[in-house]
Amino acid sequence: MEPYYTKEFNIEGENHEVKLYKYSLKSIAMVSTEKFGKGFSKNLKDIGGRFNPKLSVGSGWIFRIDSETQEKITKFLKGVFTGEIKWETGDVKIPAIENHEIDQKIFITLNELLDFIPSEKEDRMISDKDGVKTFVYYNKDDSVITQGDTIYNFESAHKSLEITQLRE
């Protein structure tokens, strides 16, 4: 079977040959390099393609032969050729959040926490469950003897909070 369309695409310095075949009366097959197929798999699925590793023309994608699908394939290939459509490499993407945004959220959250901490020195048991006692100490100084292991500690210039747990 001969392809009715063959095109070489240069993507990031690598050549990828794409061939289209009239596979049957109702379907078109697209055969390409494995990297091309994997990199654009989401796009090819969106067009209506299904991957089939056992096509008689090679491993590739199969599509319905209707005019709408053919238009989508043409638009896709044109977008790849012009660089408008980029492939997904599977690389980890760094979130587009600037550090100052994260810092700002932390400062706001810590400021809200400070509003909940009493101004006076205070301590109490907040939980006694399953043989584990949990204590909270607000604004403790060196004269306060804590019980258990510290699981959380927060200190600012004027207030502090320490949570400890003691297993019996």
Structural class: alpha+beta
For the sheet with most strands, the description reads: 5 strands, antiparallel
Placed side by side, the strands forming the largest sheet appear as 1-2-3-5-4
Got a strand count? Answer: 9
Number of domains: 2
Radius of gyration, whole Å: 31 Å
Residue-averaged pLDDT: 89
Q: Write the element-wise H/E pattern from the N-terminal end onward.
A: EEEHHEEHHEEEE
- Low-confidence parts, pLDDT < 50 over ≥5 residues? none
Distance between the termini: 78 Å
Could you characterize the architecture of this molecule?
It is a single chain. By secondary structure, the protein is of the alpha+beta class. It folds into two domains: 5-82, no CATH class; 116-167, Immunoglobulin-like (Sandwich), CATH 2.60.40. Helix content is 28%, strand content 38%. The chain contains four helices and nine strands, in the order E-E-E-H-H-E-E-H-H-E-E-E-E. It has a five-stranded antiparallel β-sheet. A hairpin with a 2-residue loop joins strand 4 and strand 5. It is elongated. The protein starts with a strand and ends with a strand.
Summarize this structure briefly.
The protein folds into two domains: 5-82, no CATH class; 116-167, Immunoglobulin-like. The mean pLDDT is 89. It is an alpha+beta fold.
